[in-house]
Amino acid sequence: ILNTCGHGNCSPLISAASSGKLRLVRLLVEGGAEVNGRNPKGETALLAACKALRGEPAGPETIKLLTYLLQNKADPNAKDRAGRTALMYACMERAGAQVAATLLAAGADPSMEDYSGASALVYAINEQHQPTLKVLMDACQARGRDIIIIATELGVHGGPVTRRYLNVLPSPNISPVSCMSPSDIVLKTGSPNSPEERHYQFV
Question: How far from the centroid of its chain's Cα atoms is residue 76's Cα?
């Protein structure tokens, strides 16, 4: 019963996690609920908890809930049927830098892509959430990867000016997202010691 999808096609654990009910989550996990069990949408309890934030910065109880799931071997890189991870949803929902840091500390990969080719880095920039983006960039650098954001912004005379940001955030005063179409922003992730280079097109 603990791992069976019932009303709303959610297991009790996934339902409790998406509702932010830490105490119930603890009881279910201690009772044998499968932490990485999935609903028909491919969501795990961790994914559902991040997806349910709905644009609200996560509070202390949410951080405790996510930490508890991760400590009980929740997979931080599990993907739902859209190919999205908990970290991607945290960025999409502007859950805050602390949520991103919690997931990254547990092994979440900031460069993983969903089925549309977008990564958590892409979602963080599209949401113009610089604290979260800084956490993601720091994590990439810690893994030996460089982040280059290439943006075409409006210059002082109204014409386009191309600027490159190497391992730094675009200035909030001249944010490329606010000055141009997101489709014109390209993010390159590559290691200076490797010929590999990955390109992300913002859509």
Answer: 10
Q: Which pLDDT tens digit goes with each residue over 19-30? A: 999 999 999 999
Mean pLDDT over each residue of the chain, to the nearest integer: 80
Compute φ and ψ for 8, nearest 5 degrees.
75, 10
Q: Which two tokens stand for residue 143?
A: 């893994």
Two structure tokens written together for 73 = 């071997």
Alpha-carbon distance of 80 to 39, in angstroms, equals 9
Angle at Cα 164 formed by Cα 105 and Cα 134, nearest 5°? 20
Taken in order of first residue, the domains within the chain and their CATH numbers are: 7-201 (1.25.40.20)
More confident residue, 107 or 193: 107
Q: What is the pTM of this model?
A: 0.78
Full 3-state SS string of the chain = CCCCCCHHHCCHHHHHHHCCCHHHHHHHHHCCCCCCCCCCCCCCHHHHHHHCCCCCCCCHHHHHHHHHHHHCCCCCCCCCCCCCCHHHHHHHCCCCHHHHHHHHHCCCCCCCECCCCCEHHHHHHHCCCHHHHHHHHHHHHHCCCEEEEEEEEECCCCCEEEEEEECCCCCHHHCHHHHCCHHHCEEEEECCCCCCEEEEECC
